[in-house]
Every structure is written in structure tokens, then in C-alpha cells.
Specification:
The complex is a heterodimer of chains A (247) and B (347).
Chain A lengths: L5 E10 L2 E11 L4 E5 L6 H9 L6 E6 L2 E2 L5 H6 L2 E3 L12 H9 L16 H13 L15 H13 L5 E5 L7 H14 L4 E5 L3 H7 L2 E6 L2 E6 L1 H6 L1 H6 L5
Parallel strand pairs in A: 3-8, 3-9, 6-7, 7-8
Antiparallel strand pairs in A: 1-2, 1-4, 4-5, 9-10
Chain B lengths: L3 H30 L3 H26 L7 H17 L3 H23 L4 H20 L17 E4 L2 E4 L3 H23 L2 H12 L10 H27 L9 H14 L5 H20 L3 H15 L3 H16 L2 H19 L1
Chain lengths: 247, 347
């Protein structure tokens, strides 16, 4: 049997006395969109940090593609095929749009190209061009990333994550701060990604979550409250009480 | 494909060629007028330019301010001096100095790269001070007097030889070595490795999530910068015939940082212009007044206030615009279009 792309078992960490993430288990199936929802402070971003290597878990396991990577650093997890975005836009603002993408795509090249002139890294350059077109950023390629509009920056961030051809993409609120039109746009874009990659999302827009997700994991106060297909989760009385009840 | 960074580097190369031309003029003039004072001053300026280059590699590209880069300059100088006093071979002295600074910079890098920012500056400062004090108190290394009596060597090029005592000949050799180090640094910065360094400076915390090891990149550039400083330092005793612990003191490191800021941080060639300017200024002002540091301090303050990007940072955009206007259209078209065409036909 092929293992899931991501398998999280009993994951936990505390800060001081607070259990920010407590005994969370779930797995992410290939070429699906799995979404983590939950109120503010539920531990969603901390969970992302534990999975992506930004934080080291106290308890539990993180398996990527069947390989245990619990204590792996961010770059080791990247090498295993995991790519992530950030809740607060995290780009190289002083570098151009194309250079942001090229840096990410460089990972497709063999390490021996690291000390050869950049133009020898053809795959990375081709990938950059394709990502610029696919994410409609080609006309801004030489603009500094810091000068882009918020929506363009969020799109660039997804493109950067995707440029290294990961197996698993973790997107932390990709539509945060976007206009309605941009949100719909991004949703369509994320939907289109599942051909090449598996997506794990954190998202606040419930309408979007229900439309987009194949599988939903609900978190509340650091713990997993429920999981399942969107419709089932939505009608779950426990979830309604804890989460939807507040709205 | 010419992107922003590549265009900036080309603009630096234009300024490098200007500098080279000016240096060759000085050499020709010096040879014609049988001058040795200005040629030796120029040689010294170029040697300190190598040290400034090393500071700019760290500060301008990986964003790490070293306040103790003179450590490697001094180690290079001492190892070169010791080698020359045992075996009078220029190339052997350079090789020994290079090897010694590689080892020293690896050790220093392991210590300094555990921290960032201000702490990195303080640790590099501290390491240089500690080693300088050790040298200052070691009688075998001449203690506070340093070592004098380093022989004037013949520098071999296959069948030819140039005496290090020949002002024009040695000036040209130092010019070639420093410009070679500049070229090598510029080359490295235009590789994927170099671009990871610029990424470090722009947003270090994002770099691991792109799959690059921050520590490895920082170590690599630190060791390389140490090597550049060490090879430059190795030239010093050949020129002056002595070494002293002052070469490792903060004044030397600090002057290199001032040179980089005067010339323009992150421009590479700016470091060389800055160092040349500083050595010339010191010599000219020093001949009027012994309080030349006051004048240099004032100039430095004026530069920071009115030319925050330094001389090269100020003038380079003008050159960049000219580069963009002329060849980039064709270059971009020829380098990028086939790549897109290929990727399209493949998919």
C-alpha cells in the first residue's frame, strides 16, 4: 500500500504551560485538498510550523511519504518534498519577482550547478518562466516583490512554493486579506494544483473551505475536534457547538 | 537573461575596467617618471582593497557585518612573512597564507556563525582582538614590534622573474591578484550559490523553507571571505618588508568597513574604490596634519548622511540604465525565448 503523503501521529507541543498543539493525528491523501479549520488560537499555524520544521515537536510523529521526519529541519523537509507558505506574506521583498521564483526553482537542479553561472541552470530558468505565465506575473517579472499588490504577492508566494515541484504544499491562509474576486481566483488556482501536488490548507473562509476541500480537519484549543468530508463535518453537532456556534 | 542583479554586476564591471585603466595609467606614468612613492602607495591601497572586498562579501551579500576581518588579513600577512623568511618564494608564501587562512576562517566561522547580527559583529571583533593580543605578546612572532627584515623576493613566472622591489612590477602583480579576487567574487555571486547569499540578506528566515541550509551558505561565504582577506594580507610583507600586530587590530578592520561604506555596500567594486580613496586621503591629509583621522571621520559622516549608498552605489544606477538600454533587449530575447519555446513544446 502506498503511504499517505503526510501522516501526523499524536503531534504535540506546549509553550510554557499552554498546550498549543495536543495529540493531533490525521493523514493527507494524495492529490486531495485537505483543509484545517478552527477558531483563532486553535493551533493551526503552530501545527503547520511543527509539520514544516519551523518548530520541533515535543510529542508524536511526522511521516512524509512514509518516511519519519519528525525532527527534520525545514530544509530536510523541503528535500523530502514539502513546501509551505506563510500566513503573513514571506517573500524576498528586495528581490525581483523572477528572482524569487528562480531561487525556489533552483532546487530542481543538481547540486553541482550551485557554483556554475546561473544561466547553466536551464531547468530552473524554464520553470521560472512557466510559473510567471501560469500565475499571470510575467508582466511584473522585473518588479521587486515588495512593490507588488497584496493579491499579487499572495499569488507569487504560492508560485514560489510550487516552483520546486513539491509533493505536498502547505498553504497558510492563502486568501488572507484578498478581495472577493481575488479569493475566487485563488480558489480556482488551488483547485487546479491537485493534478501535480497534494494540498494542505489553513483557511478561514468557510464557504471557500466547503467548496474547495475534499477533507476537513477541525481544530479547537490545540486538539483535533473532528475530521471528515466537508458536509459531514459541517453537520457535526460538536463542531457546530465549538466552532460554527461562535459565528 | 539579464536580471536586476546581473545588470548591477555588469555596472560594477564597467567601474572595475575604469579602475583598471586608471591603475595602468599610474603604472605607465610611474615607470616613465621613475616614481616609487606613488606606486608603492597604490600597491598598499590595492592590498587594503582586498581586505575591504572581503568585508563587502560578508556585509553586502550575506548581510553579516564583520568587525574583525583584519584577523584573516593579519594571519595571511604573518604566515606569508614567516614563509618568506624561511624560503624566499612568493608563490609558496601565497599558498601557505591561503591555506592558513582557510583553516583559520573555518574555525572562526564555526564560532561566529552560531549567532547573527550585532552578536556576529561582536564575536568577529572579539576573535580578532584575542588573536591580535596573543600575537602582540608572543616573542617568537616579534611581539609588539612585529617582524622586520623580510627579504625582497624574486617573483617567478615560469622563465621570467620580477623583483618584488620593482615598484611597477610589483604594483602590476598586486593589481592582477586583487582584480582576480574581485573577478572570482563577482563570478561566485552570479552563481546559484551567490543568489542564495543575496536571499540570506533579503530574508534569512525564509531561506530554509526554500530548501537551502542557512548555516552552510553562511559558512561558505565566511570561509571564502577569509581567504580573500588572507591572500590580500599575504601581499603586505612583500611590499613593506615587515609585519606588525597592528595589522590585526580593530583600526584595520574598521578602516575596511569604512572603505566599504564609502564605496558602496554590496557593490563589490565599491569596496576597492573606497579602500583606494581612503589610503590616498590618509596619505594626502596626513602630509598636512597629524590629525588626519578627524578629517576622515568627518568625511565618513558626510558620506553616510549625503551618499548613503556610497560612491559606487550613487553612480552605478546611471551605468545600469545605459546597460539596460543597449544590449538587454537582444540578450533577453535570445536567452529566454528558446527556453520558453522548449518548455512549451515539451508540455
Amino acid at each position: 500500500m502506498i503511504p499517505p503523503v503526510l501522516d501526523v501521529r499524536g503531534l504535540g507541543i506546549s509553550f510554557g504551560g499552554l498546550k498549543a498543539v495536543d495529540d493531533v493525528s490525521f493523514s493527507v491523501e494524495r492529490h486531495r485538498i485537505t483543509t484545517i479549520i478552527g477558531p483563532n488560537g486553535a493551533g493551526k499555524s503552530t501545527l503547520f510550523n511543527l509539520i514544516s520544521g519551523a518548530l520541533t515537536p515535543r510529542n508524536g510523529k511526522v511521516m512524509i511519504d512514509g518516511v519519519e521526519m519528525t525532527r527534520g529541519s525545514a530544509e530536510q523537509k523541503k528535500a523530502a518534498g514539502l513546501s509551505r507558505s506563510f500566513q503573513i506574506t514571506n517573500l524576498f521583498f528586495e528581490l525581483t519577482v523572477a528572482e524569487n521564483l528562480r531561487l525556489a526553482a533552483q532546487l530542481l537542479e543538481p547540486p553541482t550547478h550551485a557554483f556554475l553561472p546561473i544561466r547553466r541552470s536551464r531547468r530552473a530558468m524554464e520553470k521560472t518562466e512557466r510559473m510567471l505565465e501560469r500565475f499571470r506575473l510575467a508582466h511584473r517579472r522585473d518588479e521587486l516583490a515588495g512593490n507588488l499588490s497584496h493579491g499579487d504577492q499572495r499569488r507569487l508566494e504560492i508560485a514560489v512554493c510550487l516552483a520546486s515541484e513539491p509533493k505536498l504544499l502547505l498553504l497558510d491562509e492563502p486568501t488572507q486579506g484578498m478581495s472577493h474576486a481575488d479569493t475566487q481566483d485563488t480558489a480556482a488556482l488551488v483547485r487546479g494544483l491537485t493534478e501535480d501536488v497534494t494540498v494542505l490548507l489553513i483557511e478561514h473562509d468557510i464557504g471557500l473551505v466547503m467548496n474547495l476541500s475534499d477533507h476537513v480537519v477541525v481544530m479547537h484549543q490545540g486538539r483535533k475536534l473532528a475530521e471528515g468530508p466537508p458536509k459531514v463535518v459541517r453537520s457535526d453537532p460538536v463542531v457546530q457547538a465549538a466552532y460554527f456556534g461562535h459565528h | 537573461m539579464l536580471d536586476r542583479l546581473a545588470i548591477s554586476m555588469r555596472a560594477s564591471h564597467v567601474l572595475a575596467i575604469l579602475l583598471l585603466a586608471a591603475a595602468l595609467c599610474l603604472a605607465a606614468l610611474g615607470a616613465a617618471l621613475d616614481d616609487s612613492f606613488y606606486l608603492r602607495l597604490g600597491t598598499e591601497a590595492l592590498i587594503f582593497a582586498g581586505l575591504a572586498l572581503s568585508v563587502d562579501l560578508l556585509l553586502g551579500y550575506s548581510g553579516a557585518l564583520s568587525l574583525g576581518q583584519a584577523l584573516y588579513f593579519g594571519i595571511g600577512a604573518y604566515v606569508s612573512a614567516l614563509t618568506l623568511m624561511t624560503v624566499p618564494s612568493f608563490w609558496l608564501a601565497m599558498a601557505a597564507a591561503g591555506l592558513a587562512t582557510l583553516v583559520a576562517a573555518t574555525i572562526g566561522g564555526l564560532i561566529a556563525n552560531r549567532v547573527r547580527g550585532v552578536y556576529f559583529a561582536l564575536i568577529t571583533f572579539g576573535m580578532a582582538q584575542v588573536v591580535a593580543k596573543v600575537v602582540y605578546n608572543t616573542r617568537e612572532l616579534g611581539a609588539s614590534d612585529g617582524m622586520i627584515g623580510i627579504p625582497v623576493v624574486q617573483i617567478q613566472f615560469g622563465p621570467f622573474a620580477i623583483s618584488a622591489g620593482n615598484p611597477v612590477g610589483f604594483f602590476l602583480i598586486v593589481l592582477a591578484i586583487i582584480m582576480g579576487l574581485y573577478g572570482l567574487s563577482a563570478y561566485l555571486l552570479e552563481t546559484p550559490f551567490g543568489r542564495v547569499l543575496t536571499a540570506l540578506k533579503a530574508n534569512e528566515r525564509r531561506v530554509p523553507f526554500l530548501g537551502y541550509s542557512v548555516w552552510r551558505a553562511r559558512m561558505a561565504v565566511y570561509v571564502f571571505a577569509g581567504l580573500v582577506a588572507g591572500l590580500s594580507g599575504a601581499l603586505y610583507p612583500v611590499l613593506r618588508g615587515f609585519v606588525s600586530p597592528e595589522l590585526m587590530f580593530f583600526a584595520t578592520s574598521g578602516n575596511a568597513v569604512i572603505s566599504v561604506i564609502l564605496g558602496g555596500v554590496g557593490t563589490l567594486i565599491g569596496a576597492i574604490y573606497g579602500a583606494v580613496l581612503l589610503v590616498i586621503l590618509k596619505s594626502i591629509i596626513g602630509s598636512w596634519t597629524e590629525h588626519h583621522l578627524i578629517v576622515i571621520g568627518l568625511l565618513f559622516m558626510l558620506c553616510v548622511m549625503f551618499l548613503p549608498k556610497g560612491l559606487v552605489g550613487f553612480s552605478r544606477p546611471w551605468i545600469e540604465r545605459r546597460i539596460v538600454r543597449v544590449p538587454s533587449q537582444e540578450v533577453t530575447a535570445s536567452a529566454v525565448s528558446p527556453a520558453i519555446a522548449k518548455s512549451r513544446s515539451a508540455s
